[in-house]
Amino acid sequence: xxxxxxxxxxxxxxxxxxxxxxxxxxxxxxxxxxxxxxxxxxxxxxxxxxxxxxxxxxxxxxxxxxxxxxxxxxxxxxxxxxxxxxxxxxxxxxxxxxxxxxxxxxxxxxxxxxxxxxxxxxxxxxxxxxxxxxxxxxxxxxxxxxxxxxxxxxxxxxxxxxxxxxxxxxxxxxxxxxxxxxxxxxxxxxxxxxxxxxxxxxxxxxxxxxxxxxxxxxxxxxxxxxxxxxxxxxxxxxxxxxxxxxxxxxxxxxxxxxxxxxxxxxxxxxxxx
Length: 273
Fold this sequence. Notes:
With 273 residues, the chain is an alpha+beta fold. The protein contains 13 helices and 4 strands.
């Protein structure tokens, strides 16, 4: 988002946080569903997106349009949040859509946070991503953008039913819809990171040939937390083909100490002689 859009989103996000501090988890989850439904409406209706983000149109007109469309169809809390978005200034109609979807996701995360489930939701999202990545047929079925999103969501619900928190299932559905214009895999990764950010943590993706013990994972997390000056959420990716060692990626920082990398470097050096 450009600066004006970021400021507009931040104002609406502050309102969401104020609401979430006093609301029950199930109420916040209901608001999340309504916000995501509004985002879907904006995705389907480009003319509406343009009308609601047009800086030449008076704020009162945009607000009245929102109320005429959504009044009686969404709850008061959701209507106030959508109105807060429309009151802002948007650099492009697409950024209003992005903000609506992001606000719905943040509401889902807030509901999980209030219920004390956010850490578990973060882990469930990551584990589901790993499950999908390890099964090419499943990855193809869920990542097939030609197939209807509802059909792919039904498959995901069948896989997660009774095994994941409701917020996790709903967030997977958001990822299947292409959250932020991303692929399913990239959307899941972003949702994991947003879950961690809400807990004031940074995600470290640790690739190993065999799973780390709980104690080794704890020590690694402590070292990374000391290095980055904040809590780090360690996510293990097991890839036997790296042979040994590990690679650690935190944001744009990559530390690759795998045996495979050292062998590759040696092979390349010998080939140059």
